[in-house]
Amino acid sequence: MTADFSREQAAMIAGRARVAGVDEVGRGPLAGPVVAAAVILDPAAIPDGLADSKELSAQRREELCVLILASALAVGVGSASATEIDTINIRQATLLSMRRAVGALPLSPDLVLVDGNDPPALACGCEAIIGGDGLIASIAAASIVAKVMRDRMMARLSLTYPAYGFAGHAGYGTAAHRAALKTHGPCPAHRYSFAPIKGVWSR
């Protein structure tokens, strides 16, 4: 199912000209940052096929990301590092990454629509929508950009720390990743506040 632009159109009719969708990726992995994106779509140039990034193939996400970056009025990306996650906890780091993504937008939004039920504190209006990444075009676009950007970050980390295979599993706790942890221990990109690292290793 593809997302649509009706929620944004209603907000625009009500006087909120710039509506940003926000979503994050990377709450659950054992390593790497949590990454959020904010996207203000151009009503006249919405890419076809926007949907929850989890429902799309990697190739289709890449294709749509290129279209979103080329056609959107504004795109912002923000992240919180593994160290920040360990310091302030994953919930607060996720909210921080969302605020950073909105802050990175070259245009200030009049309204932010966020996937889920835990919106960040923002200067503009902000609404949380459960399942928004599959319903709201702007949020779907943000989910795609966030996923593609985080995957690229993890691929770069894989070059620095090749023993863990980050490019293949993006830091999630796969059997291969857990086996690498047992063999090599964690690296600086790991989240030391997450099991099975917590209580066994420290930075």
Automatic annotation (TrEMBL):
It catalyses: Endonucleolytic cleavage to 5'-phosphomonoester. Keywords: Cytoplasm, Endonuclease, Hydrolase, Manganese, Metal-binding, Nuclease. Its cofactor is Mn(2+); Mg(2+). A divalent metal cation binds at D23, E24, D115. The keyword Oxidoreductase does not apply. Its EC number is 3.1.26.4. GO terms for molecular function: RNA-DNA hybrid ribonuclease activity. It is an enzyme of class 3 (hydrolase). Manganese or magnesium. Binds 1 divalent metal ion per monomer in the absence of substrate. May bind a second metal ion after substrate binding. Endonuclease that specifically degrades the RNA of RNA-DNA hybrids. Belongs to the RNase HII family. This is Ribonuclease HII. The gene is rnhB.
